[in-house]
């Protein structure tokens, strides 16, 4: 009975089997769950866990600068632990019902801090190896590509969760609602919150600008089904959209880190930038195109139903 209750608690700490990656379920989520349970007992909040993860992730990036495999291995372990903490903060938030928009924003930007540190460290390492300052060009391009990949993967996951779990089970935001909240805050009293929210609005607009057909679908859903999405529509969307979730996982943490560790072991870290730009970016493009096709299909059917229904 106790084991069954623990399994139930663990399952409730997950977002959804549709959106969870196998490596996360098998490795990071169990570790994160244990960390989250300890933090819950100690009264540590999800935001504190996120901030701690930033320090470990940035420290990992710094250690990748050194051309010593044992130092690099320590960096790998720190990065794995940082991602375990990143898993734990979300699980802790769901377990304790301590969710907040600021927490979501902080959690989203945590990975950006990690990988900014990694990209800078790899560029400096390559310069020391004689590559020249031009290596900053692919380093920066790969960093920009990473931001787009992570942003769209996270957005599509939240859209999927919105359809199968509703607003309470998703972290889907839109720039119009964020603008209302932004204007309600005072620059004098809420300076930090306004700065953070302004940056998040730009981040959200980027996601929306790259998914115009999806935005039209969401608008139709809100206007046509303000109270509840019909079960048949949920099932149809899940069936068509679920295969795309594997692409959101590919461009996220696990795949890129596995290859990053490989490049570190063979001391060919320049391949990390090539992989990010020439492999993961085409996957991102394919993911965006396919998601837009799915959205177009449902927009057409909903509008057809409105016209003749």
UniProtKB/TrEMBL annotation:
State the UniProt keywords alphabetically. Answer: Membrane, Transferase, Transmembrane, Transmembrane helix
Report TM segments: 38-63, 69-85, 105-127, 133-156, 247-266, 272-289
Keyword presence, Transferase:
yes
- Pfam families xrefs: CDP-OH_P_transf
InterPro entries recorded: CDP-OH_P_trans, CDP-OH_PTrfase_TM_dom
Molecular function (GO) terms for this protein are: transferase activity
For this protein, the Enzyme Commission number is: 2.7.8.-
- The EC class name is transferase
Oxidoreductase among the record's keywords?
no
What protein name applies here? CDP-alcohol phosphatidyltransferase family protein
Organism expressing this protein natively: Sphingobacterium tabacisoli
